[in-house]
Specification:
Elements: H1 2-41, E1 48-54, E2 57-64, E3 80-81, H2 86-99, E4 120-122, E5 145-147, H3 154-158, H4 170-176, H5 180-187, H6 205-217, H7 221-230, H8 244-249, E6 254-256, E7 261-262, E8 291-292, H9 294-305, E9 309-310, E10 313-314, H10 318-324, E11 329-330, E12 345-347, E13 352-354, H11 357-360, E14 369-372, E15 378-382, E16 387-392, E17 395-396, H12 402-413
């Protein structure tokens, strides 16, 4: 009888502990739900989705919708504009070529794009550091130019140390150009703000790399990514264009700026839709042009968190990921156009990398790396916790979200 009582007490303790754990998990996950709701209530984003994948399993995935009649509810087919998150995809494409011994990152860019053999640099004595809060008008201008002394290398483009910003008329030029080759002729006429290889400047570099990939692979850039990256990763909805059917699933853009707020009556604002995503467009922009779904991008992140392997298929090597996340430049506040004024980070190859968690002070461990886009797509890989986080929306507003997102995620995960 005494033994039976012990068993009953033991079972009660186990049951209570399990219930406490379940309640704790629900409470923590509600913290994330509340965060997503707050972004909508404060008019920072429209409908949004968070995915947390940890130790080979889905830890959290939740969509919060605005229910605004001009918005659309997010589902598995929803298409988002990656904007600058595209840069990381392009960088992986470069590593695929490098591992096939088809390119050396120390090669001069002019080897692949002849118009880059005669670049000019600006002669400016005083240069003010620019950051994301300066908007898109961070390109310097000067009539005082000279032939660049340094030869631009592939690694300069990959590390944002080429001297190129994103020229003011770049997107107009991209839309007008028939292909990347024609666009490169236009870009090469813009003088560089710095000598190649001397200083970090966030810019149009990965769109130039898209043309390099075309020359090396003898394929259109989008076709190369399809064959060597998107098909192996089952990213069947990721591309540079929208079909008629795709437009039904394209998430409307929410804006909250000094001049415009909300959605227009057709569900898509005219301002902010800079790119046309035309199906016949051959000017595939590797710095900002990709479209994807949440599920597709989860496959991309699974590959990175698994050291370059996806479902037993090697996409890139662990050594390439180490190279990508190595320190090439300091972060904010030492570098121009550094990533969203984030303290504690340095700059790798198209990724930020957390070097000092104490300075960052948001609960994240050393070594997380990732990137984000103009319309608030964000992702990061957390090697220590075998975890990745994805935030999807299509929004631009008065306030960035990354700090709050990281803090909220690690409040739950930790």
């Amino acid at each position: 009888m005494h033994t039976k009582k012990k068993v009953v007490v033991f079972l009660l303790i186990i049951n209570t502990s399990c219930n406490n754990i379940i309640e704790s998990n629900l409470s923590h996950k509600q913290t994330l739900v509340n965060f997503q709701k707050e972004l909508i209530n404060k008019e920072i984003t429209g409908s949004n989705e968070i995915v947390i994948f940890k130790t080979d399993s889905l830890f959290y995935r939740h969509t919060e919708n605005t229910n605004n009649k001009y918005d659309k509810k997010i589902n598995n087919e929803t298409i988002f504009a990656l904007w600058s998150t595209s840069k990381v995809v392009t960088t992986i494409g470069m590593f695929i070529l490098e591992e096939k011994n088809l390119i050396d990152f120390n090669d001069p860019v002019s080897k692949y794009i002849p118009s880059f053999s005669n670049l000019n640099c600006m002669n400016i004595k005083k240069q003010k550091n620019a950051d994301f809060e300066d908007g898109d008008h961070y390109c310097l201008s000067s009539d005082n130019v000279y032939p660049c002394k340094n030869q631009m290398k592939i690694i300069d483009l990959m590390s944002h140390r080429s001297g190129f910003c994103t020229p003011e008329n770049f997107y107009v030029d991209a839309i007008k150009a028939d292909n990347l080759e024609e666009l490169m002729e236009i870009i090469s006429k813009h003088p560089l703000q710095y000598e190649p290889g001397t200083k970090y400047l966030y810019g149009v570099n990965q769109s130039i790399l898209g043309r390099v990939i075309e020359v090396v692979s003898n394929m259109q850039f989008g076709e190369f990514l399809d064959e060597y990256l998107f098909t192996p990763l089952d990213m069947n909805s990721t591309k540079f264009y929208l079909t008629k059917e795709d437009k039904i699933n394209f998430q409307p853009l929410f804006l909250n700026t000094p001049s415009i707020k909300g959605f227009l009556q057709d569900g898509i604002t005219s301002r902010g839709n800079i790119l046309t995503y035309d199906q016949n467009d051959k000017t595939n922009l590797g710095a900002e042009g990709l479209l994807t779904t949440t599920s597709d991008f989860m496959s991309f992140c699974k590959m990175l968190v698994n050291n370059g392997v996806y479902q037993g298929k090697k996409i890139i090597s662990p050594e390439s990921i180490k190279t990508m996340t190595r320190k090439y430049s300091e972060g904010y506040p030492k570098e121009d156009r550094s990533y969203q004024n984030q303290l504690g980070f340095y700059m790798g190859l198209s990724v930020y990398v957390l070097e000092d968690p104490k300075i960052m002070n948001q609960g994240a461990p050393k070594g997380i790396y990732g990137w984000g886009g103009l319309q608030y797509t964000e992702f990061w890989i957390d090697p220590k916790n075998s975890m990745f986080v994805i935030f999807m929306t299509r929004s631009q507003s008065y306030k960035g979200i990354l700090d709050d997102l990281i803090r909220t995620v690690y409040k739950v995960v930790n």
